[in-house]
Amino acid sequence: MLYLDYAASSPIRPSALEVLKKSLAEDFANPLSFHKLGKDLHRKIEGCRRKFLEFLGGDVNDRWIFTSSATESNNTFIEGIGLEEGDTVLVSMADHPSVTVPAENLKTRNIPVKPIPLNSRGTIDKPGLLSLVDPSVKLVILTHVNNQCGSLIDGENLCREIKQKGDNLYIFVDAAQGFGKIPFSLKNWEVDGISISSHKIGGPKGIAGLYVKAGTPFSPLLYGGGQEDGLRASTPAAPLIFSFFEAAQEALDSIEASLSHVARLNRLTRQLLKEKIDDIEFPFPVESTSPYILMVILPGISSDIILRHLEQEDIFVSTSSACSSRVKGSHPVFTALHVPEKYHKFILRISFSHEIGEADIEIFARTLAEIYNDLARFLK
Amino acid sequence: MYNVLVINIDELWLKGKNRPMYFRAVMHHVREVLKAYHIRPFTCKVEEQRLVAQSDNPFSTEAIEGLLKVPGVHSVIPARRIPVEFDAIMPVVKEELMSMKTLPGTFKVETKRSNKKFPLTSMDVSKETGSLIQHEFPGLEVAVKNPELRVEIRILDRNIYISTRKMSAVGGLPVGTSGHLISLISGGFDSPVASYLMFKRGCYQTFLFFYAYPFVGESVKDKILKLIPILAQYQLNTRLYVVSFGDIQKRVAESCKEDYRTLFFRKAMIQCATLLAYKVKAEGLLTGDSLGQVSSQTLHNIAFLDSVSPLPILRPLVGFNKIEIIEQSKKIGTHDISIIPHDDACSLFAPRHPVIRPNLHYLEKFSKEVELEEYLKKCLLEAEVYDFSLTGQRAQSD
User: Which of B78, B112, B202, B210 sits CB 3.0–4.6 Å from B245 for a disulfide?
Assistant: First the structure.
């Protein structure tokens, strides 16, 4: 089997699996119980909470909330900062539905949502964005690494300039595809909220995190027993938290080595596919994208047909974001990314990890080329 | 409430000497439907050219609706059973009327009396009951023509049956009495409607679906697995064959001129269906073709496809307009499944200009040079088989 869909989800790291198994068996107590078992777990979770703040480069006074998914984190922040009628929100329509849909919902409460313009490289058109920042703008939503095409933001400069232009606004970054893969630090980024996910970096599913900068107004989505410092009621999922922590630690320890390895894989994939498939296109350049995600266009053959042919060879890729593959006709995310509509049916997303080797890429390129070139004979 | 179901049989008057055979077939089917839906004991007997099912436990709505889908059944009258006494009639009529959500404005009492020993004539029974109804329900008016409500009283030798409604069933001929067809089914509107029409004409059907994976995704197969349970309710046991068609399509597409692709895909389908017919002892094929609806459905192409199989190919929709087909699909309940979008089996292979008038020499040449039969046999052997019961439940396949 050759799995090249790491942006959708990744297999659990062996070390994270060990931690999870052990903790599931042993850490059965409720971390909020007053006995020793509960207190020990509570202490351990608080330790993880501090470490996650450290991982991000946050301050000890900042808040870190364990959630069930990056989708929950995104929804929680967007709802939680208390937007009111008359506030404006800026978001890119190329972003993941877990930010665009809750943002769109704000419109029903008379909170205008304006699209952040992108350039043809799929990255933010900075002058365009800054021109939208007026006193009414209360929230700017950014995505660290676009989940479809991998395009990156220049977080440091972009956030600073946005903050310079608009005072009293909040910046939120969805970093689900970037955390543990592309280095960044809150020491350089002036942001107020960040979401990250466990299962994108080899941790278990069902756990994620939300960073909220100290002083940011915030009300929870879930009320109840006052867990997570009153910011998210629910019994903390101790085993998932510990396993997530293990995966994050491991990913961050090898972040530079993995990044340069994956960058090599990305270049090799582009090179081999270009050699073997005349018509292939890579709509987004290496320079402005995360090497972990590669979007390719295979003109003429519906990407779902390619996907199923690859699946027959035990190779797995994506045709578009797994959550929205059923969208027919023109795809709003691809439109926002300036991919011509005639290509929307022909887009494949290949996503890598440190576990993939160059030999895998050679097999993949050869197989994909065979499939495409064989089917292309039938094109009229 | 209805301990009695009077089941009228359609078209038996046409059948002369074969009548007992038809009667037995429909009776067997009716019994099986009742067995499936009504777990309590019941009897089902012939009474004067009709079937009468009786049980001490009332028949459920599902059981009645199941009977409405038995080909050969003209109508079902859910009735109450009372002794042969005039005084027993009105209390039951009253109960029936009281149970209606809204009372109709006009009514008529119709009495049929085959029990000539009954002291009152049919006319007298109708008249007397009518005036009792008017006395109890002063808002109701008698209407001889087009009454909103018909109160039917049938006085037989042993019982009186009272009913206030007659539910139309599919009618036609009992399933199986017209033979066995291979029904080619796709995910669209047409083939389920074609299948329904031929159930009505007494054809038992085995379904065949050509699954063009990996050129189409699982969603098409899922649609088929939702459509068949609806159609399976018209016969006793239903079998569906799912034949992998992706490789055949590719093989055909690479062996013929582009504009002939669709026609030759259909040739392969007819050939495969014919092989299946021999295997399961079916006597004909059934398709949802409508003349001229798409280019493969021209007379020339139909003539060619007819020549592919020695078996008759029934095309009950040949004279239907699309809108009529869609209307019918709404009535039989397949519309909402057929309308779910799915990948078109031929999107990659679909010719820009499909052939309308095929060249006979080329047809012959292709048929001679491109051997498909052995390949199709293999596909048929490897087909997935699904079995469905008459309630539409999927059974374990063997």
Answer: B210
